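Table S2 (text version). Query chain:
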Amino acid sequence: MQETAVNETFQHRLEQFNPGMVWLDGSNRVTALNDIAMQILGPAAEQSLGVQKNGLLGLNVMQLHPERSRGKLSFILESQDPVGCPVKSPPPVAMMINIPDKVLMIKASKMVGANGITGTCMVFYDLTDVTTRPSPAIEAQPVPPRRLYKIPVFRKNRVVLIDLNEVVRFQGDGHYTTIATKDDRYLSNLSLSDLEGRLDPDVYIRVHRSHIVSIPHIVEVVRHKDSTSLSMADNEQSLIPVSRSKVGQLKELLGIY
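Corresponding structure-token output:
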């Protein structure tokens, strides 16, 4: 009941957010944008390209995103409805981008004119403040990325925020990640690479190229010949492989000597 109330509150907040809007031509070059988009994308242009805000027009939108985000952005820009509707909008995509450390929920729709598709309208919501908090500052070092405390996922036509404390493990597959809690599983389009740098390293460890686990939710360390696995506290009691290179770090975090 409490989870439903929290989600309803977030849905109401989402309705109140001012969206960023960007118009792209057929080659994905920026032709127009509103003031919210200017505020968010302007720093990206300055940091990555050395371009002032007034130089955004005409830029390919891919240039405004770090390389690791471009595949995901390209996917939603090129998405087409399987039955051929040219204006069908794909599901929202959550992305973390360095402008700086923003968590954006993005949706894109093809725009149709008299002669067919003329370009794309991108609409995005800045979820940074409701999903992350600043990381502790480290003296004489660059400011670390903002830490996640909630993860946005799209489910049943709604944006749901998963409390990070409830997450048992993450399993990656390309641009997508399965998030397993004790009672459920969710599909997120934040990749393991997106997530890894935003999680508390004292709580979460990447034990394998495809797996990040929550240390408090480890039930058992299972050893078999030369391999090590972790039994986790999700409803499937998943057995997660540990890469040999991670065994030492895992033992140290668990106090196993």
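Notes on Table S2: The chain has a mean pLDDT of 83. The domain at 153-254 is CATH 2.40.50.1020 (OB fold (Dihydrolipoamide Acetyltransferase, E2P)).
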